[in-house]
Amino acid sequence: MSQKPHIACYPGSFDPATFGHLDVVRRGRVMFDRVVVGVGRNPEKDTLFTQDERVAMLRALVEQMVRNEPEGAPVDVRAFEGLTVDFANSVGATVLLRGVRNISDLQSEIQQALTNRQVAGLETAFVVAGENFAYTSSTLIRQIAAMGKDLSVLRSMCPQPVIDRLREKKSREPERFGRLIR
Fold it and tell me: Can you give the CATH number for the domain in which 54 is found?
């Protein structure tokens, strides 16, 4: 009798991807047989990057991680629409993987985990953020990018390719950043 592979689905908007997100993926690779990163589209959120841009950035970052750290489970990055639990079921996930930075995150994540278990029978595995990432969020990065002149200050929060994309988008589409300040 063969055992069903343990597949983790790590959903999020990843707008943009941070070192904290990559830390969750890295640690998920040692806990599960496969990790599927689901880049969702929340109709209530006005994202800075399109879904395709977020998927492309994450794929490149994850591919680099896997090349540099070949031990660990494979990782797949995919876009999805609709409910996270439906996406997780469609990829054969046995668990949802979530990063938790602080007690506020934990409260909302527990509520979501209970709902996901009741609605879809999916368990949630929580990974506590590394101490270097406890106060980093995509929202904070977008705000700094919108209001700051020197985006190199983001080096401790997100990878250089993300900073480059933020810089490029800010010069090409300043109105998108302007909406973040209002």
Answer: 3.40.50.620
C-alpha separations of 3 from 6, 7, 33 in Å: 9, 12, 11
pLDDT digits (tens, 9 = 90+) for 57-116: 999 999 999 999 999 999 999 999 999 999 999 999 999 999 998 888 899 999 999 999
- DSSP string across 96-134: EEEEE-SHHHHHHHHHHHHHHHHHH--EEEEEEPPGGGT
Catalytic residue list contains 21: yes
**Is residue 45 among the annotated active site residues?**
yes
CA angle 90-23-150, nearest 5°?
Answer: 115
Q: Is residue 170 one of the residues assigned to a domain?
A: no
User: Which of 21, 27, 34, 54 is an active site residue?
Assistant: 21
Q: What count of Cα atoms within 13 Å lies in the side-chain half-sphere of residue 138?
A: 17
Q: Among 41, 59, 101, 176, which one carries the catalytic annotation?
A: 101
In one letter, which amino acid is 135?
Y
Domain carrying residue 41: 7-134
